[in-house]
Amino acid sequence: MTHAKVFENRPPVLGINGLGRIGKLTLWHQIGRKYFNEIVVNMGRQAGTGHYSIARMNEKDATYGLLHRFRYGIKSERLIEIKDEKKGKLLIDGIPVTILREARNPVDIPWHDYGVDRVVEYTGKFKDPTVTADNPKGSIRGHLVKGAKAVINSSTFNSKTLTGASKAVVKHTLEITKTSQERIAGPAQSGPPNSGNSPNSKTDEKTISVVVSYSHHDAWLLKRLRIHIKPLEREGIIDYWDDGRLHSGYSIVEEIRLAFESASVAILLISADFLASDFITKYELPLLLDLAAKRGTVIIPVVVSASRFLQTDLSRFKSVNSPDKPLNALSTAKREQILAQLAEDVIRTTNKRKHCLVCPPCDPDESKMFSPSINKQSDEQEEYTASSRNQREFQQAKNRPKPKRRKRCLPRNRNNL
């Protein structure tokens, strides 16, 4: 069993609010992963005649059948045992599961009594993150009041301050819960704090997160990059982030880490100042290289000035412009062309990664298909193979003998008879 150190170095305990089909399949998934030492499920109401009914309900799914057969085959034994009927204690495949059947309002759920650190909200009722915890109709903030340190909402928030459903960390949470560093995360995953751009920003579930790593000496180029990226952000194609969106009063390293971990594309403005920065080489580059190797994060370098770029590990990623022609040595028109090409590369990479948003991080070998430095050769090879195949099929069709036409028994014009 995997033990993870989270928050107060306690064994991780997961809380699930809502036991519909999605909540049940989440329970199945976490039981199989064996990541959490214990799982607490809040149903919010009395269901069935007792925990025997609840156990049977969680044991079967309309699509996947019985849990024990789905996990271990048709000859396996049942995995759910009732340990304590009064306290709602179950044992599912060796993982203790506690069922709560009283509170419906999140502020009344005793997460702290069970040591729950993370809560997944599956009821779909609490879509406004700005509602206070003491609201009589309930609020997602009630989980934080009752001891949860992080809340993941399965449904989309209705707040216009969110610029991407894949990141969806609420700005209001950072303003209110400053002391405890608590966060409310939206669907898919917890991401970096968002500054809340235009209300017209789209919340498309296929939006790709793009981050920029740069030296402040190259801020002049970052301004032009933002202008070229802005149309993509307005159309909902990408969700853009750079350190200009850091919030005051919070750990810079922590916010940058959250932003990089939630990003699918990282743009690096390479210069001598970039490579000389102690902060970048210590905190940003190691994290980006690790994410590129393990999760397939696409790294796109842009050579700003002459530097030792070719002698670093970053040289294995294909840059937008040639290292022999840095941007500061080009005319304004040439620089604009390269930045426009960078935006097109981001769109191309975005289209290739869209199908991976709903699945776990890609395998490192599979993620190579998204790397601009590796993908060019594979595209040319694939085009050559397709061309050869078409020529071969055409030649085979040309050499194939034509079938003999059957002679007609009657003349074409019956009037000639």
Mean residue pLDDT: 75
H/E element order = EHEHEEHEEEEHEHEEHEHEHHEHHH
**How would you describe the shape?**
extended
State the name of the first-level CATH class of the largest domain. Alpha Beta
- Measured by DSSP, the beta-strand proportion falls in 5-15%
Describe what you observe in this structure.
By secondary structure, the protein is an alpha/beta fold. The protein has two domains: 1-155, NAD(P)-binding Rossmann-like Domain (Rossmann fold, 3-Layer(aba) Sandwich), CATH 3.40.50.720; 197-375, Toll/interleukin-1 receptor homology (TIR) domain (Rossmann fold). It has helices at residues 21-33, 51-59, 67-72, 142-145, 171-176, 219-234, 252-262, 272-276, 278-294, 332-353, 364-367, 372-399; strands at residues 13-17, 38-42, 60-61, 65-66, 80-84, 89-92, 95-100, 118-121, 150-153, 183-185, 208-213, 238-241, 265-270, 298-303. The strands form three sheets. Strands 5-6-7-2-1-8-9-10 form an eight-stranded mixed sheet, covered by helices on one side. Strands 12-11-13-14 form a four-stranded parallel sheet, sandwiched between helices. Helix 6 links the parallel strand 11 (208-213) and strand 12. Helix 7 (252-262) runs parallel beside helix 9 (278-294). The protein is extended. 33% of the residues are buried. Residues 1-8, 163-184, 186-205 and 355-386 have low confidence and may be disordered.
